[in-house]
Amino acid sequence: MNTTDMLSEIRDANLNYLMLARQMIRADRASAIFRLGLSAELCDLLDGLSSAQVVRLAQSNMMLARFRFDDEAILGMLTRTNRDTTLSQAHSALLMATQPIEDIA
Predict the structure, then answer these.
(1) What is the pTM assigned to this prediction?
(2) Cβ-contact 80, 72 below 8 angstroms
(3) Alpha carbon of 10 to those of 14, 27, 47, 49, 65: distances in Å?
(4) Which residue of 2, 44, 56, 82 lies most exposed, with the fewest beta carbons within 10 A?
């Protein structure tokens, strides 16, 4: 994959992420805050963007979404093959809920 293709893929991922985030925020704000790991203020900002602003923001050459699993325990629970997937996902959600919400200043 060359650099041009990679940048195009990043822009597509950014646009998809922003559109999904806005849809989640509008459907169930509290759940979106938890699932996206964003602050209420950042959710308000995303929800208030115009379509043109979303497209402009998506054109960044850097990924807007970031990998949230800094904790190996959470990542391990989500990736290990386990007979009780529901329990593993619930435990992971509890661990993630204790992590601080992103505050991008």
Answers:
(1) 0.70
(2) no
(3) 6, 25, 21, 20, 10
(4) 2
